[in-house]
Amino acid sequence: MKSEFFSGSFEPEIVFNLQEKNVESIPDATITQESFKIVVETKMSDWFYTDQLLRHLKSFSDEKYKVMITLAPELMKSEKKIEFEEHLKAYNATQTYPVMHVNTTFEEIIDAIRDVIDERDYEMQEVLDDYLNYCYNDKLIIVSDSWKRMRVQLAGTTFNFNVSENLYYDNIERGFSAHDYLGLYKEKSVRAVGKISAIITAVTTEDGIEYKAELGELSDNRKQQIRKAIEDGRNYGYVLSANRYFFVDKFYETDFKKITPRAPMGTRVFDLSQILETEQLPETPEIAELLKSKTWG
Fold first, then answer.
1. Rounded to an integer, what distance in angstroms lies between the CA atom of residue 167 and that of residue 229?
2. DSSP string covering the chain, please?
3. How many CB atoms lie within 10 A of CB 247?
């Protein structure tokens, strides 16, 4: 809320001050926290009703910061949002502190949280991954726009193998939102991008490796590539006993530079249509070429 909607003016945490001057005295210390209240209405689709949302306004009192979040897998229809916000505008005219309406999706919340979590805050990164997995499994994230999404993964040690075999592997328990493109990060830049053609899980059991195709075809050649990846992983101390393998048609060289310090510690998802400023993506080789002139942070 602080970074996305209040431009830093909202401070939700307790603030400690020493020797804070006021008009007539200087106390040794002050401990303050600005009042705020967040009301959330959640639906499984765009089933929001203006009457219900207006009744929710009674949940607020005299808080300084008031936020109503309407949350669903998809955004509200524009006409419905306009109707509610017209009523909200009239309500706010009678209030000392207005209510802010934030209409968002589960995926947008995840993206916003990912932007503010420190990349080396491993505990929170794991919590976010768990939540992403939950949202993906319970269909709280709509996959219809996967065509424009590129998921970027760290691939320093295994980069050459990933590119030569046109595959990337990750722990089977790690969640992910749907995406059609995969980018490999190495040395402060996304160095390769490919379009996903298959996603296959491989779990080692007492009876051998059990394969399951989540996307695309489970061919003998892909099984052989997975076995090759398991063998290659041993060179780096990896035990690939339960992993998900992402196959791409081909990884193309690119140079999508990260201009801020520190390498990302986990997944990052980009909207290629926004980065490339187009409503229709070109073929993967051209995407790779265009990304060379773009940066991110």
1. 9
2. -TTTTSTT----S-EEEES---SS---SEEEE---EEEEEEE-SSS---HHHHHHHGGG--S-SEEEEEEEESSPPPHHHHHHHHHHHHHHHTT-SSPEEEEEEEHHHHHHHHHHHS-TT-HHHHHHHHHHHHHHHHTT-S--TTGGGEEEEEE-TTTHHHHHHHTEEEEETT------SEEEEE-SSEEEEEEEEEEEEEEEEETTEEEEEEEES---HHHHHHHHHHHHHHHTTT---SEEEEEEES--EEEEEEE-SSS---S-EEEEHHHHTT-SS---HHHHHHHHTT-EE-
3. 24
Compute the distance between CA of residue 54 and CA of residue 87 in angstroms, rounded to an integer: 8
Q: Which residues make Cβ contacts (< 8 Å) with residue 126, sequence separation at least 6?
A: none
Q: With pLDDT > 70 as the criterion, what percentage of the chain qualifies?
A: 96
Our CA angle for 130, 133, 139, nearest 5°, is: 140
Residue whose structure tokens are 């695309």: 216
pTM attached to this predicted model:
0.63
Phi, psi of 193 (to 5 degrees): -140, 140
Rg, Å, the chain Cα set:
24
Give per-residue pLDDT as tens, 52-70. 999 999 999 999 999 999 9
Residues of the chain scoring pLDDT < 50: none
166 neighbors 250 (Cβ within 8 angstroms): yes
**Largest distance between two CA atoms of the chain:** 82
Measure Cα distances from 222 to 92, 96, 172, 201, 247 in Å.
60, 63, 17, 11, 8
